[in-house]
Amino acid sequence: MEILRFMPMKIFWVLCVVIVFVSWEKVDCFQGLNVTEVYDGQKNGWFNKPLMVGLTLIPGAAAKGAVCLDGSLPGYHLHRGYGSGANSWLVQLEGGGWCDTIRNCVYRKTTRHGSSKYMEKFIAFTGLLSNKHSENPDFYNWNRVKIRYCDGGSFSGDSQNERAQLYFRGQRIFEAAMEELKSLGMRYANQALLSGCSAGGVASILHCDEFRELFPGNTRVKCLSDAGLFLDAIDVAGHRTMRKLFGSLVHLQGVGPHLPRSCTSRLNPIMCFFPHRLIADVRTPLFLVNAAYDAWQIQASLAPPSADPHRYWYGCKLNNAHCSGQQIQFLQGFRRQMLGAIKRFGKFRKNGYFINSCFAHGQTERQDTWLAFGSPHIRNKGIGESVGNWFFDRAETKIIDCPYPCDRTCHNLVFKHL
């Protein structure tokens, strides 16, 4: 387990300490009870005590084969909407990395990301899940749901390994969860937003059009992906680490048949697990929130230990302030690749994005980055406001930050040790 601390760049910001897993099996979005945060929130009055929402298991899921890696029931956390938001639904797909080998998945099924036996009974709803108008003015009184992630394949696989007693049933979990929510009133929604962070951000893209089909044509339905724009990038050793990971995952979990046909009809299914090859063909309006220097991708796909045996990148990965000029140039190339990946996607008026030049990973589920005093901004627009403007068609929202180091509002991740 690695310990991070958030280092906001203005001196009046509060230092945060977070515990996060950085490995193939355990990637998180640093939110809720999945993070240990030290804020002086009460003293400064920045954040109120977050809403804690209980876990509900889906009783009928087992009969449909919709089970976690270990065969346990999948679950969700629901806080009911009221008033003007009583018929509006925000469905959040939890993130948490992937498992791409039998060994990794066997380990994962002994954690909250592989079994509901280990899931927290209550989690905090913050950021876009907050129930406070001051923290989340556009969605605070909606029906807000977090679907727990326990399949290791971005809610997309459908296979099993009997010898290892592993169930790769992400697609079935997604379908069972949607049926459950529809029975609880989501079928009558007048507007709905599917969101997700990291591996959940990949899932929100993969399932976006499928989510749209759950509702009548006159329902406003859109999708949001946070830190889900994983690129098929070349690492510092000239290899494609992410392609290897996704290739193993797609084969192990039987993902191929459930990927969008708009992509698999022309490309290998492995390539179609990369969101940047899918986004332009998603018919439903889609918004991307992403750090141009995604901290997880730098750690695990651009400069993983396998590509950096002499640890030339070690200090740079811990703290972007320690990167050499040559390393920054490499990372600028990664940023340019990301901007190139969204070029065709951005031509459609229905889509939107907020790409800031931060060393971060996941910014919609944290209150300090979603909407708070000192939160990240681009041209006086914050993330929460930008997403709301796009969803409600208040403004066309396509915002790209200038290159590092121009943005002084970033909440950059600084790693204490790896």
Automatic annotation (TrEMBL):
Q: Localized where?
A: Secreted, Cell wall
Superkingdom classification of source: Eukaryota
Question: Quick one: signal sequence residues?
Answer: 1-29
A Gene Ontology molecular function term for this protein is:
pectin acetylesterase activity
Q: Does the keyword Cell wall biogenesis/degradation apply?
A: yes
GO cellular component, alphabetical, reads: plant-type cell wall
Q: What is its EC number?
A: 3.1.1.-
Keyword terms of this UniProt record = Cell wall, Cell wall biogenesis/degradation, Hydrolase, Secreted, Signal
Pfam families membership: PAE
Function (record text): Hydrolyzes acetyl esters in homogalacturonan regions of pectin. In type I primary cell wall, galacturonic acid residues of pectin can be acetylated at the O-2 and O-3 positions. Decreasing the degree of acetylation of pectin gels in vitro alters their physical properties.
Q: Which family does it belong to?
A: Belongs to the pectinacetylesterase family.
Please identify the protein, giving its name as recorded.
Answer: Pectin acetylesterase
Query: What is this organism's lineage?
Result: Eukaryota, Viridiplantae, Streptophyta, Embryophyta, Tracheophyta
